Amino acid sequence: QVHLVESGGKLVQPGESLKLSCLVTGRPVNTWGMRWYRQAPGKERELVAQITAAGSTNYADSVKGRFTILRPGAANTVYLQMNSLTPEDTAVYYCHMDGFWGQGTQVTVSS
Q1: What Å distances lie between residue 8 and 21, 31, 53, 105, CA to CA?
Q2: What is the pLDDT along the chain (111 residues), one digit of tens a residue?
Q3: pLDDT value of residue 52
Q4: How far apart are the C-alpha atoms of 48 and 65, rounded to whole Å?
Q5: DSSP state of 87
Q6: By CB distance 3.0 to 4.6 Å, which of 14, 39, 49, 59 could disulfide with 69?
Q7: Would you call 94 helix, strand, or coil by DSSP?
Q8: Which residues make Cβ contacts (< 8 Å) with residue 39, sequence separation at least 6?
Q9: Distance from C-alpha of 9 to C-alpha of 82, rounded to nearest angstrom
Q10: Is 75 helix (H, G, I), strand (E, B) or coil?
Q11: What is the model's pLDDT at position 89?
Q12: Do the beta carbons of residue 96 and residue 39 sit within 8 Å?
């Protein structure tokens, strides 16, 4: 059975960086496409970043140049490195693999 567990979310100030983790059990992350989504209050869930099984990456325009999805291969974990955070990045961030979701981790950007 596949389980995804996100962690790393917290309250940060604008301009700071944060790295989210998604620990996967039940499947190897380096053979599946992985995605990070986020959902802000009152808004629909949106795709933030994805990495294909082959390693190609794509990002939402709103985070391009600031966020990086990483899959180094060790610890069966996928990361989302987030730099230059703004209040608009405040949301619950979810990890996704082949129809499986994690429980989400809250990121709040506020001064």
Answers
A1: 6, 24, 24, 7
A2: 899 999 999 999 999 999 999 999 999 998 899 999 999 999 999 999 999 999 999 999 999 999 999 998 778 999 999 999 999 999 999 999 999 999 999 999 999
A3: 95
A4: 12
A5: G
A6: 49
A7: strand
A8: 45, 46, 91, 92, 94, 104
A9: 11
A10: helix
A11: 98
A12: no
Cβ within 8 Å of residue 57, ≥6 positions away: 49, 50, 51, 68, 69
Q: Which amino acid would we find at residue 1?
A: Q
pLDDT at 75: 84
Q: In the block, which residue shows the tokens 């966020």?
A: 67
In Å, the largest CA–CA distance within the chain is: 40
Letter for the amino acid at 68?
T
One DSSP character per residue, 25-45 reads: ESS-GGGS-EEEEEE-TTS--
